[in-house]
Specification:
- Helices cover 45% and strands 7% of the residues.
- The chain is mainly alpha-helical.
- A hairpin with a 2-residue loop joins strand 2 and strand 3.
- Helix 1 packs antiparallel against helix 2, helix 5 packs antiparallel against helix 6 and helix 6 crosses helix 10.
- The protein starts with 22 loop residues before the first helix and ends with a helix.
Length: 308
């Protein structure tokens, strides 16, 4: 009974790593738990979870032999994925040193020896191509399946430049009564097949968007007098939440392929290219990067570096 009176360490961060089979796995999982409260579901699913999977596919404990771990990592995944994994592990080790969980960072700078994958450049439709796509959704009448239902959704993406998840998560309570302004401050994202509402946008930038006349008329035509503020503006044909991946693979792909606009400049076009189109056309119209950034929820630097 003497043992129960001894001081016990209750903090998970102060528990020794040696009790785990893999010190690197233990450190990484503790690091992710530390980040989770402030990380978005998409970051957890798209950034942290792949690193966890890559670590577990390697037999060597990276904290004991980082070079051997690196060789194994390059065998189980691509060079670009290995680079991102090593970058994340370096950050985890820095955090571990701050909390006295490890004494060194064996991954410091290791990722720099691997080539980074270049992001797909933004590819925009011309104004004429944009209008062709909108008209095709307006008039679509496929065999057994029509995608006319998504026409307002596609117009909204092209005319606002917002992210798909922001349009999917938009509720009538975020639009003023006369539909002249929209408040973008939340979204619905898909994580591992589940739809999750986020009370913020991707960059956590809340913004107001002033609607041009054609967008205002579109929203007014969709809005009823007794609309529920919590009701979604855009819904699936079955009155549920629009599945972004499902729409991209079926409705979007079907319509743009029929027009020969599914690939442009060697890039497979997706609904995200509606955003690229809006930004590019606004830049061509002479609007400043600061103004465009305010409309779409980015920094002026991103607009300048990626588009201008």
């Amino acid at each position: 009974t003497y043992q129960k009176y001894k001081s016990q360490k209750t903090s998970e961060e102060s528990a020794p790593l040696a009790q785990h089979n893999s010190q690197l796995v233990a450190l990484w999982e503790r690091y992710v738990d530390y980040l989770k409260p402030t990380a978005s579901p998409t970051t957890i699913d798209g950034t942290y979870n792949p690193v966890t999977a890559h670590i577990r596919r390697c037999k060597t404990d990276g904290l004991k032999d980082a070079l051997k771990f690196r060789r194994e990592l390059l065998k189980v995944t691509t060079t670009s994925q290995a680079r991102r994994t090593l970058m994340q592990l370096s950050a985890a080790c820095k955090w571990g040193m701050q909390h006295r969980l490890v004494t060194e960072n064996p991954f410091e700078g290791m990722y720099r020896a691997l080539d980074a994958s270049k992001p797909v450049p933004p590819v925009a439709y011309s104004a004429e191509e944009r209008d062709l796509i909108i008209a095709a959704f307006d008039n679509h009448d496929g065999k057994g399946m029509t995608y006319q239902h998504y026409s307002p959704f596609v117009k909204f993406l092209f005319w606002t430049g917002c992210r798909s998840c922001e349009a999917i998560g938009l509720r009538w309570g975020s639009i003023v009564d006369d539909c002249s302004k929209i408040h973008f401050h939340e979204s619905i994202v898909e994580v591992s097949g589940k739809k999750i509402r986020r009370t913020e946008t991707k960059t956590s930038v809340k913004r107001w968007f002033s609607c041009p006349k054609r967008l205002q008329k579109l929203l007014q035509s969709m809005r009823s007098d007794d609309i529920d503020p919590d009701e979604l503006v855009f819904k699936s044909p079955k009155n549920g939440i629009i599945g972004e991946r499902n729409f991209r693979r079926r409705g979007w792909a079907n319509v743009v392929t029929s027009l020969g606009l599914d690939v442009k400049d060697g890039v497979t076009m997706t609904p995200y290219n509606c955003r690229d189109t809006f930004i590019t056309l606004q830049a061509l119209a002479g609007h400043s990067s600061t103004t465009i950034a305010r409309w779409v929820g980015n920094s002026s630097k991103v607009i300048e570096d990626r588009y201008l």
